Amino acid sequence: MKRTRPLSLRLRLTLLFLLLSLAAWLCASLVAWQQTRDKLDKLFDTQQMLFAKRLSVMEFEQLQSAAPQIAKKKVKHGHLDDDALAFAIYSTDGKMLLHDGANGKEIPYNYRREGFDNGHLRDDDDSWRFLWLTAENKRFRIVVGQEWDYRQEMALEIITSQLTPWLVALPLMLILLIVLLSLELRPLKKLALSLRARAPDLAEPLPDDGVPREVRPLVEALNQLFARTHTMMQRERRFTSDAAHELRSPLAALKVQTDVAQLSDDDPIDRQKALAQLHTGIDRAARLVDQLLTLSRLDSLDNLDDLEPISLAALLQSAVMDNYHPAQQAGIDVRLHLHDNTVSRQGQPLLLSLLVRNLLDNAIRYSPAGSTVDVTLDAHCFSVRDNGPGISEEALARIGERFYRPPGQSETGSGLGLSIVQRIARLHHMTVTFGNHPQGGFIARVSW
User: Fold this and answer.
1) 349 and 283 housed in the same domain
2) Both 25 and 132 in a single domain?
3) Who's near 422: CB < 8 A, 6+ residues apart?
4) Are 446 and 425 in contact (CB under 8 A)?
5) What is the bridge-based pairing of β-strands 333-338 and 372-377?
6) CA–CA separation, 268 vs 281, rounded Å?
7) Coil/strand/helix, residue 335
8) Residue 77 confidence class, pLDDT cut points 50, 70, 90
């Protein structure tokens, strides 16, 4: 099923503004219509009341017996509407004495009504608003009427004159909105073009000049992502380069030992030696690959998850027991000194075990036969110390560098063990220091 692409942000904002403007215009029109109609009703009711009171002070005795009418005259300004106002004057017995000459003569007499009333003219279905008022001498009744349609038309004209300019201005506002949105979205379009033309391994951050404040967190997150991606690519390239460089020698040695074993068919002793060397080379290559993969996995970690409290005394005891038999085979005695059995740290047991195992393996591997390796736990650190010859100051300054091995070493190794130790310590917020012990030997101390 083909997915439809969403509308552009500019179009969505324009449509949303249009809908909101129309809804606001309609609501304002309804409210204005209601309020204007109510105000006009009060105004016209007051007008009818004032007109009726003015008529009530006339000299009714001078009216002729036949109902006269007011003559219509042309006026220079304004217009005369028969529905605007109509009136009639009756005697109390219902005889019409005076009317306006138009709709007033069609107002039916009401004997009982006093005040405002709604009704109709004779032979007419239009609704009218009437005001009945009795003169002070109780001999005459005055009625002033106004058609309801006239009031509504007047209210509609007022509302139309007020709201039409806003309706005309709406297209202009939309055009202005589209122009403003185009100007405001221009930095985003520029940012998109920059991302489209960006090289995959580029580490330079994206510029945030002119970017709206709401979009700036996205740009910052992208810059952080580019930095992490660049670091990861560099790490992968370094791993590939290191693996290719370091595996070249073991693989070449394996090929040589394989050739020697193939050429030693007539000499079982030489073939056995070649196979033993081949086995040793395979172990070395496997250890190198394992250390490279471990270091690569540790480099990819920024923080550790699933931490748990670890008793360092139990951790060191387990590591010493695991390395006890290899140490005995090498003629080395491993001793554990626990000065504080209550020390506990938050960490990952497997990584901390790897840290201690690498330190013990390094001490056992590079100590002469008959040596002693002391593992000591204190309140704020633990240390692994051998009583070998130590290392020179020049080598001590570079110890811990990847693939660095002090000169004069007879044991095989990759130079990655102490680098792994340092990386695990940093992930656990620990500090590793290397040095020569004053009483002789090499010491590695992990403190927190």
Assistant:
1) no
2) yes
3) 400, 432
4) yes
5) parallel
6) 20
7) strand
8) very low
Cβ pair 181, 10 in contact under 8 A? yes
Alpha-carbon distance 171 to 182, whole Å? Answer: 17
Q: C-alpha distances in angstroms, 155 versus 29, 127, 159, 161, 413? A: 11, 16, 6, 10, 99
Are 347 and 278 part of one and the same domain? no
Amino acid (1-letter code) at residue 32: A
Per the CB < 8 A criterion, the answer to whether 264 and 274 are in contact is yes
Q: Phi first, then psi: what are they for 242, rounded to 5°? A: -65, -45
Domain count for the chain, please give it. 3
Is the domain of 105 the same as that of 181?
yes
Angle of the 312-322 helix axis to the 349-365 helix axis, nearest 10: 50
Best CA proximity match to 144, nearest among 91, 89, 103, 86? 86
φ/ψ of 35, rounded to 5, equals: -65, -40
Question: How crowded is the C-beta side of 68, counted as CA atoms within 13 Å?
Answer: 8
User: The domain containing residue 95 runs over which residues?
Assistant: 7-59+83-197
- In tens, the pLDDT along 30-57 reads 888 888 889 989 999 999 999 999 888 8
How many residues are listed for the chain in this entry? 448
pLDDT digits (tens, 9 = 90+) for 229-278: 877 777 667 666 656 655 666 677 677 777 777 777 677 777 787 777 77
Q: Which residues, other chains included, contact 281 with Cβ-Cβ below 8 Å and sequence gap of 6+? A: 250, 253, 254, 257
CA distances from 317 to 314, 327, 353, 357 (A): 5, 15, 10, 11
Tokens of 121: 């003219």
Residue type, 297: R
Answer whether 446's CB lies under 8 Å from 431's CB: yes
For residues 295 and 312, state if they share a domain: no
Calpha distance 300→236 (Å, rounded) = 10
The owner of tokens 């047991």 is 349
Same domain (yes/no): 350, 432: yes
Q: What is the pLDDT of residues 165-216, one digit of tens each?
A: 887 888 888 888 888 888 877 888 888 888 888 887 777 888 777 777 877 8
Greatest pairwise CA separation for the chain in angstroms: 161
Instruction: Please report whether residue 210 resides in a domain.
Output: no
* Domain stop point among 135, 169, 197: 197
**For residues 438-443, average pLDDT:** 86
β-bridge pairing 431-436 and 140-147:
unpaired
Percent of the chain with pLDDT over 90: 18
- Residues 55 and 141: beta-carbon distance below 8 Å: no
Backbone angles phi, psi at 177, to 5 degrees: -65, -45
Same structural domain, 145 and 15: yes
